[in-house]
Amino acid sequence: MIQEQEHIVTLVINQSIEMGEFGIQEAIQLFELFGLPYQELFKQYFPENQFPKKYEITSQTLPNYPFVDVYLKDLDLIPKVLSRSLMIHDILYTISRANTIEDLNKNVLLQAMQYIENPNLSCKCDIITSFFKITQEKRVELMEQVFGEKGLNCQNTINLTEPDILYYLMITKDQKYIAGYTLSKKKKRREKNFARIYELPNRIYLGPVSLAHDLAFLMANQAQVKENDFVFDPFAGTGSSLVACSHFGAICFGSEIDGYLMKGHCIGYINQKSTYLKDPNYKQVKPYINLNFQQYNLPPPNLIQTDVHLPTFNPRVDEFFDAIICDPPYGIRASIQQDGNEQDLQANRTAIYRRMFEVARRVLRKGGRLVYLYPLFKGMEKKVEKEEGFELVDFREQKMVDKRSRLLVTMEKL
Ligand SMILES: C[S@@+](CC[C@H](N)C(=O)[O-])C[C@H]1O[C@@H](n2cnc3c(N)ncnc32)[C@H](O)[C@@H]1O
């Protein structure tokens, strides 16, 4: 039964092979950021005394994934979550659910009738099913049965391009029917996500390992970056992670060993395909990292050229940053540079991660997040070692080309 004070909404998570299970962890962090702990969000799935850790909640443990039903008291959370989400394709408000179409029509929430019976509103109906294909004829038949004269007798006018309400009928894996309407502003399928303007193919200044825009935003969401947070990327490169954080209003700091990359002298280059080249605001001819902030009208970051192994910060100013977000060099495309020893790749990799934690232990505030990527090579176990002074919040795998993969890891400073 749907309780009066709680609304059932369904998160429709984007499924893509490259993005793996990043959608669940993003939903967890965004609802938490806006005040709803994950134990509340997923309370109907797990018994209180055996509640899993965040990283144990996967597509395998959520029965109807990529549809995830959650109970909300406050629907105002939805626009807030959607304003930052990359992986939640849509959020649907459930008005009825049943095993048969007849019961579905009988169970409809009374408050939904104010929309269904209003001829001044326009609508479009959609059928969502990820688990099996249905023919066009069957779709029309189902829509007629639910929204047509013999069903809910919907009085709205039809508008297929810009409807006021997008109704949906969802058929779940276990052949249950759910009816509702979308709560996102996306009235059309394939509507662009806010982050699309940041895609690398349109980014003005690129380097050999610029971080993809979606991963950068997912990492900023894992760190729950907010306005006026102080965020640091010790391996800033061309600044992708900082661009995402700056979009959320953070004050950004970055260091990078390769000063030439920041100043565009060698491996960094102007992307001739970027539409920013045609923008009247584009004045800079010299390639350099700050162009990536100018392009989106973001304030310039605070940058320093240094080796992460060197002492950079004032020893009296500890626990300064609210978040550290980085993609350390793995030694494949981005070289791991360290004085003296360039030979032993694995040792260098271990040293760079160890150093990242050392820096974070000092300069990250308590409760601040360290979000980083960690490569998994053949034969390596998919796990994250315990790290003194940090609690593991979440980790998920991203599959990459040629069977490589990497983990997106989120730690919290204790
Ligand atoms: C994987 S890339 C990061 C790319 C960056 N996120 C971007 O969007 O361009 C790693 C960066 O770490 C830098 N790096 C390598 N060794 C370093 C060190 N010891 N200290 C600081 N930066 C280092 C590399 O020059 C490279 O730019």
UniProtKB/TrEMBL annotation:
Keyword terms, alphabetized: Methyltransferase, Transferase
Q: Which GO terms describe its molecular function?
A: methyltransferase activity; nucleic acid binding
Ribosomal RNA large subunit methyltransferase K/L-like methyltransferase domain residues are: 203-387
Q: Which InterPro entries match?
A: DNA_methylase_N6_adenine_CS, RlmKL-like_Mtase
Q: Biological process (GO) annotations?
A: methylation
**Which Gene Ontology cellular component annotation is one that this UniProt entry carries?**
cytoplasm
Write down the superkingdom of origin. Answer: Eukaryota
This chain's protein is named Ribosomal RNA large subunit methyltransferase K/L-like methyltransferase domain-containing protein
Q: Which organism is it from?
A: Paramecium octaurelia
